[in-house]
Hints:
alpha+beta; 3 strands; about 55% helix; Arc Repressor Mutant, subunit A; about 70 residues
Amino acid sequence: MVQLLLHHRYTVGELAEDCGVRELQNVASELLMQRCGFFTSEKEGRKVYYQIAGPQLERFLDRIESRFESHVVG
């Protein structure tokens, strides 16, 4: 979900569908989006769109991915 949000904003329903967890839409919204502080939300009509709050999360993920890639045996 985070990687998707790095490139575009999504509603919880769109994220859940793209990640194959459609049945967890409300849980994803409450736990992953609103409480963690990594995301901002913007309401447009009845839809709420989420996106990354700042560049810190992207840098953090880049570090994790580079660390993991350095340990993968080819």
